[in-house]
Amino acid sequence: YINNTSPDYTIPSVRKNENDFRERCNVAKMNLGSNRMVLIESMNNWNWDSQIEPTVADYGQGYGTKYLDIVREEFKVQ
Prior knowledge:
Number of helices: 2
Strand content: under 5%
Mean pLDDT: 79
Distance between the termini: 52 Å
Radius of gyration: 15 Å
Shape: flat
Order of helices and strands: HH
Largest sheet: none
Low-confidence stretches: none
């Protein structure tokens, strides 16, 4: 039985893009509550391209520490 109404979870709904990631960081900052804490949840699923952990920058689509650096910049993490 194949359910054609199920979403295809093998394709990410949002592709990894530096500007989009920064925009989502800004949305999170604008919606902070009194605790001023943001949790970034990443499944680190390489098939879905949802990881933010470092990669080898010069290998394939590698991005080094770009996304961790963006988190540091956007949230002023020391």
